[in-house]
Specification:
The protein is of the alpha+beta class. The protein has helices at residues 17-32, 47-57, 77-98, 101-107, 118-121, 147-165, 179-184, 215-218, and strands at 69-74, 124-131, 133-135, 141-143, 168-172, 190-199. It has one domain: 3-Layer(aba) Sandwich (NADH Oxidase), CATH 3.40.109.10. Helices cover 40% and strands 16% of the residues. The chain binds 3-iodo-tyrosine (IYR). 3-iodo-tyrosine (IYR) binds at residues 91, 94, 107, 110, 112, 172-175.
Length: 222
């Protein structure tokens, strides 16, 4: 790798402390309004909004800046139908055979089952793949580092960007997800990370009344 040129940090903005208080509070309030939704409207979503959200996600920090991700945005109805059919097959196995009683009990408050109509109904499925290496032009492999951490961070930014834009999303992880490589024609060095179902909520959408842990429960200052 060649040494890059280094430039001055010009994008950083230093705010007065009082501004920081307000900004952090406002952002927290905005994020507390985010809810995972399972009832999607079929109303179309602007592709350029999704592109902006993906640009934000792809700005995430990553191991050695190798950006070990690929996003497939599925708007095509026939492909969404194929993904739904394949996912529901796996989910049927999960709910009826694979999941332990303990796991099913943990899921009970969410009211989920093997039926995934949103995979066809929502206008976009953003399928996030993690890449374990990049193939160089000479056929050798450039290995990626901290792949799961990097893709997790990018996914968090994507979820935040989608919410900030005024849309809703659902993190969906059918297991196993290998069928996504086949349906979407992705190479073997890419592993499906999760499906982010994206769109507007159905007008009649409902959400479970489940709490987040308090700051005291999840934070320790030393
Ligand atoms: N993938 C299944 C089960 C599921 C698992 C967890 I952990 C969840 O938080 C939600 C669902 C499904 O999508 O139904």
């Amino acid at each position: 790798m060649q040494k890059p040129e280094w430039t001055k940090l010009e994008s950083y903005v230093r705010y007065p402390e009082s501004t920081m208080e307000v900004r952090s509070e406002d952002f927290c309030a905005e994020m507390l309004r985010r809810r995972t939704v399972r009832q999607f409207s079929s109303e179309p979503v602007s592709r350029s909004v999704i592109e902006n959200c993906l640009r934000a996600a792809a700005s995430a920090p990553s191991g050695a800046n190798l950006q070990p991700w690929h996003f497939v945005v599925v708007g095509d109805p026939e492909t969404r139908k194929q993904i739904r059919n394949a996912a529901e097959k796996e989910e049927h196995e999960f709910y009826h055979h694979r999941a332990s009683p303990e796991w099913l009990e943990a899921l009970a408050p969410l009211g989920t089952d093997e039926h995934k109509p949103y995979l066809e109904r929502a206008p976009f499925l953003i399928v996030i793949f993690s890449r374990s290496y990049t193939l160089r032009a000479d056929g050798t492999r450039l290995k990626h580092y901290y792949v799961n951490e990097s893709v997790g961070i990018a996914t968090g930014i994507l979820i935040t960007a989608i919410h900030h834009a005024g849309l809703v999303s659902l993190t969906h992880t059918p297991s196993p997800m290998g069928f996504l490589n086949r349906i979407l024609g992705r190479p073997k060095e890419e592993r499906p990370y999760l499906i982010l179902v994206t769109g507007y909520p159905e007008k009649t959408a409902v959400i479970p009344n489940i709490p987040k842990k308090t700051l005291d429960e999840v934070v320790t200052f030393v």
